[in-house]
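Margin note: ligand = adenosine monophosphate.
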Amino acid sequence: MEIDGARNTQIWRVSASVGEDSESLKEALPILQAAEVLKRGGLVAFPTETVYGLGANGLDAKAVADIFVAKGRPADNPLILHIASMGAIHQIVREMPPLAISLARAFWPGPLTLVLPKATIVPSKTTGGLDTVAVRMPAHPVALALIDAAGVPVAAPSANKSGRPSPTEAAHVVKDLLGRVEVILDGGPTGVGVESTVVDCTGRRPVILRPGGVSKEALEEIVGIVEIDPHVLASREIPSGPVRSPGMKYKHYAPKAPAVLVKGDPPELFEKLTRLAAEMQIKGEKVGLMVSRELMEYWEKQTIDPSQWYITCMGSRVHPQEIAANIYRCLRELDEQDITKIIMEGVPRAGLGLAIMNRLEKAAAHCILET
Ligand code: AMP
Ligand code: MG
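Resulting structure:
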């Protein structure tokens, strides 16, 4: 395996699953040792319920700078600070507006990040020079135990190299960051599979800057109308003007082979996608497909033989949480094949579908087809 960094990476297994109590992990040796690494200014990759994070002491500008180097991340793309208890927030924010209190009470620990006015103790390196700070309390026992033992807010972007899909398994982190971090805590596959929802709480109304693990509908049940930043809905393009969330202006992961995203509803969607794959194959392309279980059943019923295509199944269209959990793994899998054209099946935008479609649209920056 290629090792292109100067750090000696330790990989430690910590068995724990989402929903488990983090108390029992607090004395676990890998957690205590990883916390020491964080306190000394080192880098620790760890599981959260969304994707694996690449953590450093978020109040230590030098340690935070090392995250950007390890990932190859643009310096003005800010990081999220992860905390393990409500009490920890007062040190890092200047103000906690009532709407942020309501959202934190409803969704923490969980896949929701709140953008708030920053306290002076937070280095500008962490916030990409912004006057605001993004904060989240993850719902993973390993993450909570680690942050608690470190005793500092942990700055952590996704633990992938910039431009690669977010990691949902420790093996993905090893592939991208071996030799670039001190420790990788392997806590098994993550649960949610897409990143947290980022909500700007500094205005009159909450605004979604990035759709993610908590749906717009769920947010609205707590705080009424929630807006979506217009750049989210135009996510196939890289915005040219000023953006409220710096991450929006960067080109996201794109698979090695050009990808087409086919939107619509069955049965037209299935027919269009099948026809497209057949046409590409006739032109000599090696076709890779990222599809739902329902599409595979449709092929079976229509006695269509898909064996000449490389197929990866995202899960069921009626269980978006299954698809969210699989999309990054599927994208990595397609990159490992000698594919020349990728076709991805779009899903309805309701609930988690908004976050899923946002990631698929970015991956298919080249081409989106509507049926
Ligand atoms: P990642 O760390 O890769 O999960 O991405 C974190 C996302 O949160 C990026 O899109 C950032 O631009 C966004 N973000 C972090 N801090 C802020 C902030 N203070 N204001 C707006 N967006 C932020
Ligand atoms: Mg990321």
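The chain has a mean pLDDT of 93.
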